[in-house]
Structure formats: structure tokens, C-alpha cells
Recover the amino acids of this structure.
């Protein structure tokens, strides 16, 4: 499912982190791979409009 908002992105990243140790050939591993693709797609599509994580120096 595509990520459409920054709030959805935050939830996806949190879920992704809970799945980091899941074996690749498990349901949880497949979910992690799906989230990884969705998160990367969101960043590619929205890179210019995302709020900065850290203030510039």
C-alpha cells in the first residue's frame, strides 16, 4: 500500500524497525521488504517537500 503522508511514513518506519530481525523468507520478512519499497518510493516522490530532520548548520 503506497505511503501518502508523513504520518503514514512515520508509522511505516516504526513498523519496519520492529521487523528488522525477521528472516527474509518469512511473512514478517516479506512485510519488511514491502515496507522498505514503500518507504523508498515515498522518499523518491516527495524528497523536495519533506521537512528536514535536522536543522542546517
Amino acid at each position: 500500500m503506497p505511503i501518502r503522508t508523513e504520518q503514514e511514513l512515520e508509522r511505516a518506519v516504526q513498523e519496519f524497525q520492529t521487523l528488522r530481525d525477521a528472516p527474509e523468507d518469512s511473512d514478517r520478512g516479506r512485510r519488511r521488504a514491502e515496507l522498505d519499497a514503500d518507504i523508498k518510493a515515498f522518499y523518491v516522490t516527495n524528497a523536495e517537500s519533506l521537512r528536514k530532520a535536522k536543522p542546517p548548520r
